[in-house]
Design brief:
The structure is a single chain. A three-stranded mixed β-sheet has the order 2-1-3, with helices on one face. The two termini are 23 Å apart. The protein is built from seven helices and six strands, in the order ββββααβααβααα. 31% of the residues are buried. It folds into two domains: 119 residues, Rossmann fold (3-Layer(aba) Sandwich), CATH 3.40.50; 59 residues, no CATH class.
Length: 207
């Protein structure tokens, strides 16, 4: 199982750089970032603070259509390249009142079940986006492996599933280590998980 390929929407004007990861440019039905093979399940919408304020205040009707699309995803989120204090202190060119922007943010989270993450700045937002995509894929692959294990009547299939899942974790750990701002705890957790899978087989491996 190879490392994931990140999809960047063709309309994304200033895309994030993800180091040595494979990046594919293609039109996405929703969001700016997803993962190849999971385009209908995972979506990250990137916003600068100015763009976010404009979307929730001046361009609400169009943005509602985007939110309805995101609400259908299993792992959607909106990433804002600013902090919540930036909103409350009106650190944006629009004349919109901070309370209106704050209220609209809460509405997105509650009414559409789409979480909004204020990451502080662009660099932190890029890192959050990458780890969000990786963890969402890990959850999906884990569930798929469990489903395959439950459906399979072959004792040969279970060790194979474990080997593929462990290989994926190792590949992802190696990819993340190449970034200067990689999360060492996550890398270690992936390696420990891969080792545990091969030894104990959480998806029904051999003893």
């Amino acid at each position: 199982m190879e490392a994931i390929s990140i999809i960047v929407d063709t309309r994304e004007q200033v895309p994030y750089a993800f180091g040595s990861r494979q990046v594919v440019r293609q039109a996405l039905p929703a969001g700016d970032y997803s993962v190849e093979g999971f385009e209908s399940l995972i979506a990250v919408e990137r916003k600068t603070l100015e763009d976010f304020v404009h979307s929730v205040i001046r361009d609400r009707e169009r943005f509602k259509k985007e939110l309805l699309k995101l609400a259908d995803y299993l792992h959607p989120c909106i990433v804002v390249e600013a902090s919540l204090p930036d909103v409350l202190l009106s650190r944006y060119p629009s004349g919109a009142h901070p309370n209106s922007v704050f209220g609209a943010t809460v509405s997105i989270c509650v009414d559409y079940c789409v979480p909004v993450f204020f990451c502080g700045d662009r660099q932190a937002a890029r890192r959050f986006t990458e780890e969000f995509l990786v963890r969402a894929v890990m959850q999906q692959l884990s569930q798929r492996a469990i489903d395959m294990n439950q459906k399979s009547n072959s004792s040969q299939a279970k060790p194979r599933i474990n080997e593929e899942w462990a290989a994926f974790l190792e590949n992802e750990a190696a990819q993340m280590e190449q970034h200067d701002d990689s999360n060492p705890d996550l890398v270690m957790a992936m390696r420990i998980g891969a080792d545990a899978i091969m030894k104990r087989g959480p998806f029904g491996g051999v003893d």
